[in-house]
Write a structure and sequence with these properties.
This protein is of the alpha+beta class and 144 residues long. The protein has one domain: START domain (Alpha-D-Glucose-1,6-Bisphosphate, Chain A, domain 4). It has 4 helices and 7 strands; from the N terminus they run βααββββββαα. Strand 3 and strand 4 form a beta hairpin. It is globular, with a radius of gyration of 14 Å. It starts with a strand and ends with a helix.
């Protein structure tokens, strides 16, 4: 449901493989997060694939918390998405283009357990700025 998704895209001057390498490494998620919420990965380092579960230390304002995510969509070097128990998804789609890769980050709450709560908390309006910052940080890590 497109009405329950917000997306931001950016062309990054790097290969899909280089970008996917960062996205599939939870230990790097804190480096790219533009929201300031993602702190660090918990547990053993692993490369993500369909069905992988990975824990993250998070922070909302001054409140620390932990979350476990599951990879629910996966196509090597093209697509990865994960969700946590609330079931809303964070998706990254990679498309090779002249000059690099068009990366689209999507916050999708159409799959959420309580989508109305996400809307009432204002996340659909807040997340595009955070996603823009995330793609900027991702570009800074991988661009030639």
């Amino acid at each position: 449901m497109a009405e329950q998704q917000v997306s931001v895209s950016r062309v990054i001057a790097a290969s899909p493989e280089a970008i996917f390498d960062v996205l599939t490494d939870p230990a790097r998620h804190g480096e790219i997060d533009g929201s300031g919420m993602v702190q660090q990965a918990r547990g053993e380092s692993q490369r993500l694939e369909l069905g992988s579960q990975f824990g993250m230390d998070m922070k909302l304002g001054f409140l620390p918390y932990r979350i476990t995510n599951t990879v629910v969509e996966y196509e090597p070097n093209r697509l990865i998405a994960w969700c946590h128990p609330g079931k809303h998804r964070w998706r990254y789609e990679l498309e090779p283009v002249d000059g690099g890769t068009n990366v689209t980050e999507t916050f999708d709450w159409s799959t959420a357990v309580v989508p109305k709560a996400i809307e009432l908390m204002g996340y659909p309006k807040k997340h595009p700025a955070n996603m823009t910052a995330t793609l900027e940080r991702l570009a800074g890590l991988v661009e030639d």
